[in-house]
Amino acid sequence: MSSRFLDTTNLVIMTRHVAFNAILALGMLLVILNGGIDLSVGSTVGLSGMVAGYLLKGWEIPGTHQVAYPSVWVVILVGCLVGMLVGVVNGILVAKLNVAPFIATLGMMYAVRGLAELVGNGQTFTQLFGQKALGNTGFVSTLHDNVLGLPFPIWVMIVLTVLCSLYLTRTPFGRWLYASGSNERAAALSGVPVKRVQVRIYVLAGLCAGIVGLLLTADLSAAVPEGGSGYELNAIAAVVIGGAALSGGRGTVRGTIIGAFVIGFLVDGLVLIGVSVFWQEVIKGAVIIVAVVVDQAQQRLQKRRTAKQVSGPGSSPAAPAARSESTVMTRA
Where is the segment annotated Disordered (predicted)? Predict the structure, then answer.
């Protein structure tokens, strides 16, 4: 409906917007594969960005009157560590203290957002370009500019997508994650370190949120306490549209990235054709519901086909159950 939609420049701009949600969704995928949820990633984006802005503006060393201006790479490292620290707390609450993931991360969502407000005392850090004399320049240009014709966030999305895919399909951790998400008790009895897997996935989700916080801060050239607000819902939506099961054990990196592109391109396309912001939310919600309904219908259809193949054309419906019961009694 818009002649500008498939324009190369517009596609790059839309993909840049998608990159933020896609990176968050990769971390959310790991959590959902385990049957959990992380509602704190949006707040973590804001906290990571505020810490980066605070350091770039100058960190007053406690007990002295001196102000330190860390280099760009130190700021980036600290921003990532902030996200990982939030993930560690989430992992401990869920894995060690057995707090329900929804409750644990809901509480952390409010707590972390409050910390983001405290870092800047409710204020926004602007003009984060630094000064050459202080040695803290390059933050915005490093994370905002184009590299080989593509914006830096897109490259980060591509690299993290490849790493996450390899991590899930080529390492023991990936097998542990799918196993523990499908059946936690069976996985534990099989020797899978379930608790360690839970802590690690929340740390990785926090790392992804920290990276997005840095990229968003560089993109805005400002650190905003409300940065990342609502991002957790878009990340969950991308994972769900991509075919992952909220109960855990099913989902792919490819599906998650496709889900992120569906949401991002849909919203940007609606903007191009002049659809009201209010209707955009309605349409996005409808797309999520339809995607889940269709996916569940496909899963039920697949289960029926599998059941028919197992039972065979000449066997009665009760035969599989009888064989199963006989097998169980023989093993006992």
Answer: 305-332
The 3-class secondary structure across the chain, one letter per residue, is CCCCCCCHHHHHHHHHHHHHHHHHHHHHHHHHHCCCCCCCHHHHHHHHHHHHHHHHHCEECCCCCCEECCCHHHHHHHHHHHHHHHHHHHHHHHHHCCCCHHHHHHHHHHHHHHHHHHHCCCCCEECCCCCHHHCCCCHHHHHHCEECCEEHHHHHHHHHHHHHHHHHHCCHHHHHHHHHHHCHHHHHHCCCCHHHHHHHHHHHHHHHHHHHHHHHHHHHCEECCCCCCCHHHHHHHHHHHCCCCCCCCCCCHHHHHHHHHHHHHHHHHHHHCCCCHHHHHHHHHHHHHHHHHHHHHHHHHHHHHHHHHHHCCCCCCHHHHHHHHHHHHHHC
Region 318-326: mean pLDDT is 43
* Confidence band for 313, pLDDT divided at 50, 70 and 90: low
**324-332: average pLDDT:** 41
What does the alpha-carbon distance between residue 188 and residue 195 come to, in Å, rounded to a whole number?
9
User: What does the alpha-carbon distance between residue 240 and residue 285 come to, in Å, rounded to a whole number?
Assistant: 12
Q: How confident is the model at residue 329 (pLDDT cuts 50, 70, 90)?
A: very low
Q: Summarize pLDDT for 129-156 with one digit per residue, the tens.
A: 877 777 777 788 888 778 888 899 999 9
Report pTM: 0.87
CA 94 to chain centre: 17
Dihedral sign (CA 135, 136, 142, 145) = negative
Q: Which of 11-15, 62-66, 109-113 has the highest mean pLDDT?
A: 109-113
